[in-house]
Amino acid sequence: MTDRKAELAANLAKVEERIAAACAAAGRKREEVTLIVVTKTYPASDVRFLSELGVRDVAENRDQDAAPKAAECSDLPLGWHFVGQLQTNKVRSVVGYADVVQSVDRPKLVSALSAAAVRAGREVGCLLQVALDAGVGGRGDRGGVGPDGIEELAGLVADAPGLRLDGLMTVAPLTGEFAGRQQAAFERLMDLSTAMRVAHPAANMVSAGMSADLEQAVAAGATHVRVGTAVLGVRRGLG
Ligand SMILES: *Cc1c(COP(=O)(O)O)cnc(C)c1O
């Protein structure tokens, strides 16, 4: 094994241990939680190592970086998640490789994704990104629809050709009533998921928790955690 692959293997083992412990503490089965490794800013060679180490889901947040990486790794059995703020002019590219877009947060993006998916002959899974710090009718600083906008947006995705409504995603807010209260934030997301599933029972994915707060997400009931730093190391610069 190369040094880098051994490093990734050791980090993955630690993250796996944390997820398993969090599941045990919450009385959940380990299979109820899927690890998505966020590979943003790291090279395709790392994605390849992760695949060899058994990772099945990876996530990226910038199309410029993700598109060439996904192309280089197209022979690998990986699910690709897009988790970044998405401009409509990038949608056609993203639909070319993303199996799931976790950052759906406005009607214009739904229509653009739908048109691109139909054109590409693909079905794209969609999570609505929820901004728990958004005011009424508002949006989050880092994207996301406010809780009061979920119902309308869910209906639009569910009715859009080429799209599949898979569930909800959030990033723990840095401001507002949930600042510093990750578990309360993730529990709120679970309540919003339960409410949405009355009309959309199959949309049962709940994506929450990152390197610093995956335990709180698992405790709250998340089905997917998105872990970058704890597997790949601290990112340099933005990302
Ligand atoms: C970068 C990122 C993550 C992973 O964050 P880490 O703290 O590195 O684990 C998760 N979700 C989103 C949306 C991200 O942009």
Entry keywords:
239 residues, alpha/beta, TIM Barrel, binds pyridoxal-5'-phosphate
Structure explained in plain terms:
Pyridoxal 5'-phosphate (PLP)-binding protein, which is involved in PLP homeostasis. It holds the Pfam family Ala_racemase_N. Belongs to the pyridoxal phosphate-binding protein YggS/PROSC family. The modification N6-(pyridoxal phosphate)lysine is found at residue 40. There is one protein chain. This protein has nine helices and eight strands. The protein is globular, with a radius of gyration of 17 Å. An eight-stranded parallel sheet has the order 7-6-5-4-3-2-1-8. It has a single domain, classed as TIM Barrel (Alpha-Beta Barrel), CATH 3.20.20. The protein has 239 residues and is of the alpha/beta class. It has helices spanning 3-26, 44-52, 63-72, 91-95, 107-120, 150-159, 182-199, 214-220, 229-232, and strands spanning 34-38, 57-60, 79-82, 100-104, 124-130, 163-170, 205-207, 224-227. Bound molecules: pyridoxal-5'-phosphate (PLP). Residues 38, 40, 61, 83, 171, 210-212, 226-230 line the site of pyridoxal-5'-phosphate (PLP).
